[in-house]
Amino acid sequence: MDVSLLDEPFQVTKEQVDFYQKNAFIKIKDFLSPEIVAHFNAVISIKVAELNKVDVPINQRDTYGKAFLQLCNLWVQDEEIKKLILSKRLAKVAADLMQVDGVRIYHDQALFKEAGGGITPWHADQYYWPLSSDKSITIWIPLQETPLEMGPLEFSAGSQEIMLGRELSISDESEQVIQKNLKINNFPHTIEAFDVGEVSFHSGWIFHRAGANTSGETRKVMTVIYMDKDMILKKPENDGQKNDWETWCPGVAIGETIDSHLNPVVF
């Protein structure tokens, strides 16, 4: 399939940039064509099936394990998937929304929530990332139409300003503590279905979650995490950040720009 459309620019409006700057997330309809989505659904599904080593029944896993199957950095393992992950179309919008001059890849993740899969608890992604600033962004790309019963991404608009909960990994505790604090402070909660070709972008510090998958099909999502091309590696503050340093930023020293072979500038 011709995927050259992935390098055709998508022009975000001033209103969309302003919305993202205020709320730290945005959903954009018709960002990818149905044909592109169907193509990468097939390609990524094959790679996930090939690489998935999880053989524990879903009802015997912990909350994190029930949330999704997670496979990372598929872009270095498959040339076709690489075309999506290193797409100028994706990367330019990431840069425009963050208002930076350019972006590097941090890493990608396939997140497949199986039929019967549990919730993804409230959390902030950047808990796991040894990044020196908030100029990080995740694009969440559903590989099929994603109604509410499949567990689409949910956002707490503006919650990137909240400090309570940033110290929590994805867990039953993070679900309870963060949810309670968001309700007390009356932060807006956005939960909507995703159409085919609709994607979302969200900041590393916004609190978000996803519901359980009560449908009979796997909810397939591909995510790409970009960061400011000038991002500095900070000293890790927890074991998750230490692991990310070693895994996604190999050879980079604390205080240096994250420019390893796994972190090319995309735009």
Automatic annotation (TrEMBL):
Superkingdom, taxonomy of origin: Bacteria
Pfam families: PhyH (PF05721)
Keyword Oxidoreductase found: yes
MF term (GO), any: 2-oxoglutarate-dependent dioxygenase activity
Cofactor: Fe(2+)
Keyword Oxidoreductase included in the entry's annotation: yes
Protein name: Phytanoyl-CoA dioxygenase
Organism: Flagellimonas olearia
